[in-house]
Amino acid sequence: MFRITNYGRDVVIKVLIVSFILIVVPLFFENPVLGAILNLAALFILSFTLYFFRDPERRVPKGVTENTVISPADGKVVKIEDIIFKDNNIFGAGEKIMQVSIFLSPLNVHVNRIPVSGTVKYFNYIRGEYLVAFDHKSSERNERTEIGIITESGKPLIFKQIAGFVARRIVCSLKQNDTVQTGERFGMIKFGSRVDILLNRSSIIKVSVGQKVKAGESIIAEL
Fold first, then answer.
1. How far is CA 11 from CA 5, 27, 113, in A?
2. Using an 8 Å Cβ cutoff, are 168 and 130 in contact?
3. Fewest CB within 10 A of the end CB: N or C in the chain?
């Protein structure tokens, strides 16, 4: 069954109205070429919008443990490397950790899902720039939310929703002290974006650069 995410229904309603206007306007003019162009434009805009805001069901793989990290986003892994964490929240400032970055194109499913069960102990929204999401500088310079979870076994993990050049709105329903479960929907980034996952260096990474992953299904790492 084709499902539209609740996070995008406001946009879908606006696009439906615009598409209706584009279809009706040519009826008042005797210009078949103009009518065909506007009808095609309405069809394209509506089709792309419905496709972008699709929200397929996903099932967490069998056998995952409390330390299994599932992908929070659909897309392609574009970066796996050690970094020095500059802030001081659930990771210590100056601590060396591992970063896995996933790039979402406008054609990917954009609904985000919880990567690991636990409690939200850190939440921060940062206004920023709108560099293209595949630019690695976007991790620290673009508009983003940073969500830190302490797992049931006491291990920390941070993931970021990062707006890209096209994306201009981040949707996130989480707040501090929420209890979350692996695979739950929690928000989306509209129209192209990036998600970063920050892990302890002792974590075992299960993906490689260039690999395509799916939110709620693909295993990223074992903490």
1. 11, 25, 21
2. yes
3. N
Q: Which residue has the tokens 């302890």?
A: 200
What one-letter code names the amino acid at 36? A
Q: How many helices (H) and strands (E) does the chain have?
A: 3, 14
Segment 70-117, tens digit of pLDDT: 999 999 999 999 988 777 677 776 778 999 999 998 889 999 999 999
Q: Give the tens place of pLDDT for each residue, 59-79.
A: 999 889 999 999 999 999 999
The pLDDT-based confidence of 187 (bands split at 50, 70, 90) is very high
Which tokens hold the place of 97?
A: 């950790």
Indicate the SS3 state at residue 83. Answer: strand
In this model, does residue 132 exceed pLDDT 60?
no
Token pair listed for 147: 């969500």
Q: Which residues contact 33 (CB under 8 A, 6 or more apart)?
A: none
**202 belongs to the catalytic site:** no
Determine the distance from the C-alpha atom of residue 38 to the mean position of all C-alpha atoms in its chain, rounded to a whole number. 32
Is residue 210 left, alpha or beta, with left meaning phi > 0 and alpha meaning psi from -120 to 50? left
Chain segment 163-177, per-residue pLDDT in tens: 866 555 788 999 999
Neighbours of 71 (CB within 10 A): 30
Residues in the chain: 223
Over residues 126-144, mean pLDDT = 64
The Cα 223–Cα 198 span in angstroms is 11
Cα–Cα dist 198/79, whole Å: 12
